[in-house]
Design brief:
The complex is a heterodimer of chains A (237) and B (277). Chain A is mainly α. Chain A is built from eleven helices and no strands. With 277 residues, chain B is mainly α. Chain B has one domain. In chain B, helix 7 runs antiparallel to helix 8. The chains are: A mainly alpha (237), B mainly alpha (277).
Amino acid sequence: MAAHDDQFSAALLESMDDAIRSLLSQDVLDAFHSNLLEKRSIAPKDIPNQLPTVSIALRGYFGPSSETIEKATAQRLFSKYGLEFHKRESAQLSDYVEKARNELNSATASPTATPEPASGDMPLRDDFDRIFVESVKETIEDLLGKDQAKLAFRMIEREVPFDKLMHHLPTFYSALRTTFGKDSGRIETAIARKLYLKLSLQFIETPMTELGKYVEAALLKLDQRERDGFFTISDAK
Amino acid sequence: MKALTTDMNASKGTSHTQVSDVAILLTAAAAIGLVYVLGQSDHNFLYLLSNGLPPLLAFVAFTVALAGLIRYGVSTKNRFSTVWLGYSLGVLLWFLGESTWAVYALAYSNPDPFPSIADGFWLAGYVPLICAIVIQSWPFREFLFSRKMLTIVSTTLVLAGVLLVALIPPTFAAGNGQNFVAAVVGLAYPLLDVALLVIALPILFLYGRGTFWRPFLFVTVGLILTFGGDVLFTWTSLNGTYYDGSYLELLFHWSYLTLAYGFYLRLRSGKGTRMLG
């Protein structure tokens, strides 16, 4: 499984390098790698694991043209795996990558290939609070780096402690807005994306949607999952 | 929390050096404007200024462009190297156009050498400039023809159409009075300006944000200022209100300043990490 992930990451990195090289130039690609390393401490090999931050960096460097770069990257990635690529309005690279991963997983899944049932490790409602806090923390760390994230956590915890987050959601949303100002929308979407990924739910980004709406929808889907009779990891064990 | 948002926007932010650079650019532009305002009562001074300043500013722009070419070389494998070569050639030809006009006006006391070799240089300058913009924006053509951009492109085309309808008949009529070459040269300017504008305006939106595009952004703004200057020049020449030292010349002067600044940013950002700001 790890080897498979490594291979996928390498293909993703290669796709991005190819896209930047062909759309811009090798010099620009080199500058992009140097910049990510020097200013955001992201080495080229870490790019596949830091896609939200990389997307923000791409937008900062190339403005609206970063959409073309992201699409070209996704197109190359899909082509490497022989997957059909469909452009989606306002989709980000991480959305395409997630889609590619899902399609690859479903293509390779067979009764003999995966010993455990696909639903066996699906998180349920009881796991939600923990996963939500994890998603918030990890997203902020991904986007800001560990040092800046600590500062952000302190700001948020002045309003509401992380262990009581789920009991004070409106306060938490307001704290996010105070902390991140005009960037809060982007951060809320990134948190929602990570949350859905961790919950193994399909994430469909809708413009101008607040985190609260995504959270409500996720809870409803988890309730539905529970009604459908899936087991939690702990139950299964 | 300012620190956090600043970090989030680090790549978008403008460094102090760039702020002071822009301040110098604006000061220079304002100073030229002030000289025009103060010099309006002195016709001899205005004549000298109107004909002597453009070659000087064009030379500054070309020198900075040349410095960039010498420093980073020209490589056919590198798209942006070709683009910068196009911009530099274009500015060189415009510099030659300005110089030729100045020689006619100042050395031979011919205040209106039209059409002349100067026009040949100016018109030739459009070719590498338009090629440079097309080569530069080609990889992002999909973006330029997205729904949002199509609105901008359509608006530009409509404006361009209105412009042509307004300028071509009187230019042609004026040219008929002189000779065929004058009519063709007179028409070539608005046509090439429109070609330049149709490509340059949409890519302004493409370059609007993004540190990598900043040098190109200034070059594009410079070209659009030239376009504005050309349109006003043609219009005022046709209705007889143009004179040496007219305020519309400021657009040409500011255009060269902006082009020079774009070339300077390229020279400073270079090939390495700073290329991305």
